Amino acid sequence: MSGQMIVTPSAEGIAASVRAAKGKGLPPVHLWNPPFCGDLDMRIARDGTWFYQGTPIGRPGLVRLFSTILRKDGDKYFLVTPVEKVGITVDDAPFVAVDFEAEGEGQAQKLTFHTNVGDSVTAASDTPLQFVRDPETGEPSPYVMVRAGLEALIDRKSFYRLVDLGTDHVVDGVTWFGIWSDGVFFGIIPSAELP
Residue 6's pLDDT is what? Predict the structure, then answer.
């Protein structure tokens, strides 16, 4: 026997570990390398709702706490504490951008997005906007990088507001319809494909 304690992960145990380790700001999950303890029956739906054992987590503070220890390794998502790492399921992106503010105009414009879990992020070169088009319908799914590989799906009302701020810009000889933020142009669709 290795002498290693076998741990059965639970949402309550993870929350207690995070509260005990929490300081100011986001926990340094990128520095933690605990053993993998298995998968937890936790899921983040496309609309940003967090479920535990099939039931929505109704406490926003608990969802925020879990969101601070979320990490993406490869294509998988984990809740990570100093002592355990558990896998969870994410249907699309782990966060939803529910609103944004635009400051300035043109290339000087800055777009700051706010997520369903209390994060705020300005779209920039290190926190880019991305527009993924469905290969069959052509419909775009817009995302903003929040932190360390974790994206927020931009909700529909915010996307429509973004489109209202859009402009044409030539990128590598092709005219794109897109949006400026923090001096970076993010193309949404080639202008020739607009209806």
Answer: 42
Residue closest to 116 by CA, chosen among 47, 23, 57: 47
- DSSP per residue, the chain: ---PPP----HHHHHHHHHHH--SSS--GGG--PPEEEEEEEEE-TTS-EEETTEE---HHHHHHHHTTEEEETTEEEEE-SS-EEEEEESS-SEEEEEEEEESSGGG-EEEEEETTS-EEE-SSSS-EEEEEPTTT--EEEEEEEETTEEEEEPHHHHHHHHHH-EEEEETTEEEEEEEETTEEEEEEEGGG--
Phi, psi of 41 (to 5 degrees): -75, 70
- Which pLDDT value is given to residue 140? 86
Interval 3-52: pLDDT, tens: 434 445 666 666 665 555 555 678 899 999 999 999 999 999 999 999 99
- The Cα 114–Cα 139 span in angstroms is 23
Mean predicted confidence (pLDDT) in 118-134: 96
Provide the Cα torsion 9, 75, 52, 45; round to 10°.
Answer: 170
Torsion of CA 12, 18, 24, 29, to 10 degrees: -130
